[in-house]
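Assess this today:

___
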Amino acid sequence: MNRQPHAKNQPHKNIKAKKQTPVPRGCMLFPPVNGKQVESVELWLDSDERVIIISFQDRTCLHFGLMCDLAVNADYFDWRSGEQRVMKRWPPVRRT
């Protein structure tokens, strides 16, 4: 009796390697939240907490703990035309 390895009995599957774009130094990606609908964004810079919380409509959130003395400024841009257009600019917020 001639036995062949199990793998040879299975049909060949064409497995393509997923091409990944290199991530620039100093950049961090968060693939688990891609495509989620944002419910709210909060910035807390009081004496107890220094965090950014992005809450999603599915009741999950992405929480950024900020670990240094800093000031944060925020800008809201529109890129739909292909050109950057400032829609709103907030004043800098400093940790208290």
Remarks:
- Residues 1-8 have pLDDT under 50 and may be disordered.
- The longest strand covers residues 38-45.
- DSSP finds one helix and seven strands in the chain.
